[in-house]
Amino acid sequence: MKKVIYPGTFDPITNGHLDIIQRATAIFDRVVIAVAESKEKKPMFSLSKRVDMVSKAIWNLDSVEVRPFSGLLVHLLQEEKTKFVIRGLRNGVDFEYEKNMEYSNRSLYPDIETIYLNCRAENSFISSSVVRTLLKYGGDISHLVPDEVEKIIRDA
Ligand code: COA
Asked: What is the CATH number of the domain that holds 117?
């Protein structure tokens, strides 16, 4: 059984992330979304809220699960007994950032294999920070996040 970890801060999960998750299910038997505590990023949403939003967004994807994590990604891979990581790429800036992160991770865990999925053109401008900015100033986010996530945010 091939299992992959999709790590991120997911503050909050967006349609761009969900597209990567759906496409990962066509490649891997099991997809584990690992929501990073990411204290240094001072997330807008608590870790448990971010996990809850992901779990609601993936309700119809049988081979996908979500869990929180803190600490190093390589330790999580060892705990989850897999060497596969999936990441989405939106542009060259993402690529440069991801390349460095992969080199750092590989220096700690040489077996790591990162699979990059190019995001769809229509999602290439989406980021969690765009969503957070729109939320801050009362803008519409319904075209950027899964319906379930919009509902959680609206009902909060
Ligand atoms: N669609 C839309 N947005 C996307 C996206 C996609 N397909 N892929 C990435 N993004 C956006 C996110 O929305 C986020 O936007 P923001 O910065 O505006 O909030 C940004 O890209 C990056 O977010 P994310 O993909 O969540 O990654 P991250 O950089 O927050 O988290 C971790 C990366 C958690 C994987 C990484 O920090 C990590 O592994 N941390 C653990 C410590 C560790 O082991 N570090 C590595 C060794 S030094």
From this structure: 3.40.50.620
* Residues identified as active-site: 17, 41, 90, 128
The pick from 11, 98, 127, 133 for probing ligand 1's pocket by mutation, whose C-beta has the most ligand atoms within 8 angstroms, reads 127
Model-level pTM? 0.95
Find the domain containing 29 and state its range.
3-155
For the chain, what is the domain count? 1
Nearest atom within ligand 1 for CA of residue 20: 7
Q: What is the DSSP string of the chain?
A: --EEEEEE--TT--HHHHHHHHHHHTT-SEEEEEEE--GGG--SS-HHHHHHHHHHHTTT-TTEEEEEE-S-HHHHHHHHT--EEEEEE-SHHHHHHHHHHHHHHHHH-TT-EEEEEEPPGGGTT--HHHHHHHHHTT---TTTS-HHHHHHHHH-
Give residue-wise pLDDT tens across range 20-52: 999 999 999 999 999 999 999 999 999 999 999
